[in-house]
Amino acid sequence: MNRRDLLKGGIAAAAAGIAMSGCKQSGGGGKGGTLTVGGLPVTCNLTLPIAARARQLAIESGKVTGVGFEFSRYSGWPEIKESLMAGQIQAAYMLAPLVMDLTTKKIPLKIVSLGHRSGAVIMVRADSGYKTFKDLAGKKVAIPSRFAVDFLFLRKMLAKEGMTVADVEISEMAPPDMPAALYANAVDAYCTGEPFGAAAQKAGYAVPLHMTRDEWPNYICCVLTVREELIRDQPEVVQTLVDYVHASGTWLDKAPQNRAKASEIAAARGYFNQDPKIIQFVMENPTDRVTYGDMRMIKSEFDDLMQLEVAAGTLKKEVPF
Fold first, then answer.
1. pTM attached to this predicted model
2. In the chain, ranges of CATH 3.40.190.10 domains
3. Three-state secondary structure along 59-104?
């Protein structure tokens, strides 16, 4: 079978599995065991719980055999990084620049797929009156990490108005804490992946200052990352995971009802443990706030991202694709 056939099969399995999905949750499994894949409860990672659910249902229905995929929820990127470095998990959605940096430290990791397109926002209080980045001069802006592409997005937008990060006060913060921090005026703005922008927007106290969908069409952030020994020892498991992730992305972008179903699945306690209405808000306002249908790994895009990280000082040297 060629890759197109594999993806067709994966799409069919994912679609069949999701179509019959209810609220039952488990980590997947079957005779082949379970591969735990780490991720954050952000819609940039949405393809992961959908892939895990589809795989679980395909195994339970007897349509396929082999390894199931289990979503392991983390609260921040540093925790995922430490788990991957220690070999506590073999696969995870990670920040692309952070993976690049870890490879320079001889950590045996490889990126095998994108996880999404777009999906980052810069939020400010609705009553702040902030319309431009000039308004944020001297203000506190939260980012998930200096290795987050959200930080590069912030740098890009500041540069458009002749500013640098030296003109604002940068604070690193776990994405789930950002909406409450903005509400309490502990920060003046935050830049992160969804649904933590939508949560504050839907609640009525925040508005987007900018979205990546409008400013950075080929935005890359979260990527599916695996340890090299998993590729070496179980390449078929890695290929199946990639196929299910891609199939889930295709399914998500195919129809609005699929996005609604995905919101229900991802919101469950075993996955994101969030209000499904918040995830659905991200899926609809606007519909291309986050997209999943094109997750090709394109060398020129990774090279551009790498050069931006070198310019930001978060990468000390160039990293080959």
1. 0.84
2. 3-117+219-302, 120-215
3. HHCCCCCCCEEEEEECCCHHHHHHHHHHCCCCEEEEEHHHHHHHHH
